[in-house]
Amino acid sequence: xxxxxxAKTSAAADASSTPQAASGPGAGPRGAGRPxxxxxxxxKFFRRKKVCKFCTEKIDAIPYRDVRLLQQFVAERGKIxxxxxTGVCTTHQRRLTRAIKQARNIALLPFATRH
Length: 115
What we know:
This protein is mainly α. It is about 40% helix and about 0% strand. The radius of gyration is 30 Å and the shape is elongated.
């Protein structure tokens, strides 16, 4: 009888040690990684670190009259493009913003596009 109890307890322990099928967004036939599943995309795309254009060209003062230069940092709709997209450093982004606002005030650059 003791042998039967031991067999039952070992069978119950084996059943509890096997992982149960998890339910949720990460579980299923696709795998439990990202919500979409599938292999990770590590190493497929290499994004180069953006370098400040003004630092590399050693431009200290950003002229508000240079419309061609300023238009590179203004989106189609008239918004100033953020640092994380252009790669400009903090100090030059502040100077750039000031120059764009000055150019807008004297009508060299538009505030917004016509729609």
